[in-house]
């Protein structure tokens, strides 16, 4: 909260010209909103942008406060997902902070098809804003076979009908593969099989369902799989208009931005004419970047104007331009001599009314708030001292109703300078590189913060130029919609495209007019500080909720045991705990008839995937993107993978790697209730030595167990030295419950239950350990697994009062392996060093001195390395550095 306190104090001392009537109140209202609904942003640095199946994707999540860009402590977890083109989440991880940083690793499965995937990250807090404000990043995943083969393709389409020509080309033999079988399916339709001709080509004709916005083609051969995202049908593009300030004004020359998109969300490059109803021409225009463009028009109210468009393939469409309005206002921005000129435009027969208010702010930090001066219709603003990022310019009436809005990007520097030095200019193979970071402000004063560092081989892959921490936190995370290449807009010379982006997107994190009217926005999704397990308990065929019913949950791996009771609607909730991923929890309630009472565990809910995340990578008469480094990168990666894992056999040109398959080992039967200590367990080897004739014969060999007959002559087990004893009406202790393959038997006759020769293990639960069975464990329990019992992934489905779940736990930290060549023997080791990511460190802390050091060893190949360092200072300054290290 200390950042918000500083923020409030900052608002109270802004310039004296701000909103003379109630300056203090408007500043405090914005601060109140920030406290009621604090927001954050997340950015992921990855060690690289392209991977080969079988590799690991290393990442650091930089989580910052939305207003000040300082490191955020608001959320306990960052959720990270890898999504395929079919909008399926392949991996999902819950990442918690370790040593003040969120970082983790995603194993890229060997079986994944080649293609473009999306890395997505968000928090509970970000879910309140919607997926438009999540972090997204494209990740290329290559197949190990792509070094030897290339899947060539071309596409023709007519409406919903696709005609694709495929050819699998063998690079080493320089000829197509024949014969070959292609298994192809579109979206989630059933797979269809096609056989190539003598030229190695297969002609594939498919039809998508009418109205489908997105089409994904999955191609599978005997060699490998590949995803293609297919463009939308012909003629199916649309144009949206965005007049500057929100409106076209009658008789006033206005600027209109537009955005042309196919219905699958991909941009359209168009040329266009501005015409009226009688086809009189008023000018021409064209898209500048990513389907965006602009034109000027002086329109008259009551008259219709159109944009007659033609795309690159000759498809023509015509769209009506918004109608000119009377009695409206429109903000206009213009840069002149380094200053920003803000003017209010209105129709020719109208002058601005008194009482209008103008507000300028960046992420809620107020720069200007005052009544609009109707005499001087232009305000000159020097933005050089404003924080970098999107500034919102708002025109309000006297009741704080919005009249016009305009966004402007202040591309100012954060005044944080990172110096990176190494102890040499050039390095031999397997040499130690010592690096030093020096972080300073513009006056040479030291700065502190946390940073992630990736050093990669430039011969394998070049750094990602499409997104970085600055473009993501200042631009992409602030605007609605997925921006394909945010770094492009931040570059020198792309100012016009950046302004088009401001005109065609909206800033909607907070509504300043609502805040001024004290209509505060509250978060909907709670900010979970721990894991949760919830559900309900119901009885009978009608599912009657059971009130005040005891429910317990336990996990041996998490060392977690807790009990609660249901509320009046039969609901229960467990929270306040944490566990690492892949652990099994058992939720249960007691029941004499285990089929009549049912425990239902709520499924964890996660945000849906937007279908517009993926842009087409298979065009009309185009071949899939081919990387110049692809063959070398894949060969190198596959050789390293096989050396480390010994699981994949593949021939790649001159490299041939073979490995023996690991033999399967027999898995023992499994029980959720079996004690983990051997002191309370009798295993199959010991049972073979005993050779019991009955179950009683086996159990009497276990300490503290007695066998007694009840009034009906049924043999029961009793456990001595229980930590607690519950007397029955006869004054004796309760019998132990019998659990066989995780089926609980409260009433049993011991020697009529199971043949002892079928038993694999016998365990005893006593004392507090037996409380995992709830009321059924009051007298302890004897747990038995049979030789043909459950596997770890099974639970008897007929038992309604017991449920096994695997909630999404947090990922445990995994250390990036970086070899050390400290001795002569290590340096002369024959095993080659084929690292592409030479060094990865997700958390380098720069202390108050502003200096930090790290070191690593070079690999074998003569090349150059790129070092990418990203992070934020403790004061909220965004830092990125890109440096080169030479390897002889």
Distance between the termini: 50 Å
Low-confidence stretches: 4-21, 622-629, 649-666, 723-732
Using the CA coordinates, give the radius of gyration: 33 Å
Determine the mean pLDDT.
86
User: Main sheet?
Assistant: 8 strands, mixed
Count the DSSP helices.
Answer: 11
Beta percentage is: 35-45%
Oligomer: single chain
User: Which structural class should the secondary elements be placed in?
Assistant: mainly beta
Strands of the largest sheet, in order across it? Answer: 1-3-6-5-4-7-8-2
Indicate the percent of residues in helices.
under 10%
Strands, total number: 55
Shape descriptor reads: globular
Which features would summarize this protein structure in a list?
five-stranded mixed beta sheet, 888 residues, 11 helices, mainly beta, single chain, eight-stranded mixed beta sheet
Topology summary:
Blueprint (H helix, E strand, L loop, with lengths): L1 H11 L10 H14 L3 E7 L3 E3 L3 E10 L11 E7 L5 E10 L2 E7 L7 E8 L1 H4 L7 E8 L6 E10 L2 E10 L4 E2 L4 E6 L5 E4 L5 E7 L7 E6 L4 E6 L6 E7 L9 E10 L7 E7 L4 E6 L5 E7 L6 E7 L4 E5 L8 E8 L2 E8 L10 E6 L2 E7 L6 E4 L7 E8 L5 E9 L5 E7 L3 E2 L4 E10 L7 E9 L11 H6 L11 H5 L4 H10 L7 H5 L14 E9 L4 E2 L4 E6 L4 E6 L5 E7 L7 E4 L8 E5 L28 H16 L4 E3 L2 E3 L23 E3 H7 L4 H5 L5 E5 L5 E5 L17 E4 L2 E3 L13 E7 L15 E6 L15 E4 L18 H4 L9 E10 L4 E7 L5 E11 L4 E10 L1
Parallel strand pairs: 2-8, 32-55, 47-50
Antiparallel strand pairs: 1-3, 3-6, 4-5, 4-7, 5-6, 7-8, 9-10, 10-11, 10-14, 12-13, 12-15, 15-16, 17-18, 18-21, 19-20, 19-22, 22-23, 24-25, 25-28, 26-27, 26-29, 29-30, 31-33, 33-53, 34-52, 34-54, 35-36, 35-39, 35-41, 37-38, 37-40, 40-51, 42-43, 44-49, 45-46, 47-48, 49-50, 54-55
Helix pairs in contact: 1-2
